[in-house]
């Protein structure tokens, strides 16, 4: 199974955008010059208060509006209809280190195994070195601002250390793969599937990972 840190990487980008919200931040690319021909200004789907065409829709940002949500670079962005809809990461002001291979040159498998030591079988299967490296390469393929490939080797090491520390806290030492149990008041539909709200402890089976 793959190490699903791709989601963590995107959420970290959003966390950085939230941090900018408290202090200011750069204009979105929509408001900072407008989108190119064939592109449209769309909202970041990770932010619940932002959409494409509503009252605070990003479509209003294209080329003119410089207040919410257009005044933060990760809330609205230019998007071509036939391209993957992936929000941009905040600009760091640091140059890409094109000669650096994150996993080959910095985060070796031995280093990873010394840091990531899940106590659960589920964690051992999910949080793997190969999966993390795949997630990093995949993320960097679609972002100008790279993860763990910007600046000097020392800067990359600090970024990886901060990320792994954050991920460890969020996953209880890489041993928990979800924050809440699945269902409360489970209801079996006509199709035989169980539909439910998040689980109460007494209804959750850790063996089958379903509600009873």
TrEMBL record:
<protein>
    <recommendedName>
        <fullName>Glycoside hydrolase family 19 catalytic domain-containing protein</fullName>
    </recommendedName>
</protein>
<feature type="signal peptide">
    <location>
        <begin position="1"/>
        <end position="19"/>
    </location>
</feature>
<keyword id="KW-1015">Disulfide bond</keyword>
<dbReference type="InterPro" id="IPR023346">
    <property type="entry name" value="Lysozyme-like_dom_sf"/>
</dbReference>
<keyword id="KW-0732">Signal</keyword>
């Amino acid at each position: 199974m793959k190490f699903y840190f791709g989601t963590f990487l995107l959420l970290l980008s959003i966390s950085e955008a939230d941090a900018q919200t408290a202090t200011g931040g750069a204009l979105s690319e929509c408001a900072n010059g407008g989108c190119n021909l064939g592109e449209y200004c769309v909202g970041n789907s990770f932010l619940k208060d932002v959409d494409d065409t509503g009252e605070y829709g990003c479509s209003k940002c294209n080329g003119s509006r410089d207040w919410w949500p257009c005044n933060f670079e990760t809330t609205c962005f230019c998007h071509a209809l036939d391209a993957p809809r992936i929000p941009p990461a905040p600009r760091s002001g640091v140059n890409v280190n094109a000669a650096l291979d994150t996993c080959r040159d910095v985060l070796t498998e031995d280093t990873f195994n010394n840091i990531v030591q899940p106590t659960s079988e589920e964690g051992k299967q999910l949080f793997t070195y190969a999966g993390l490296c795949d997630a990093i390469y995949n993320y960097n393929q679609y972002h100008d601002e790279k993860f763990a490939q910007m600046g000097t080797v020392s800067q990359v090491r600090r970024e990886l250390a901060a990320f792994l520390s954050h991920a460890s806290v969020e996953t209880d030492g890489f041993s928990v793969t979800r924050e809440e149990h699945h269902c409360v008041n489970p209801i079996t539909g006509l199709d035989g599937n169980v539909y439910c709200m998040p689980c109460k402890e007494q209804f959750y089976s850790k063996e089958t990972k379903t509600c009873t």
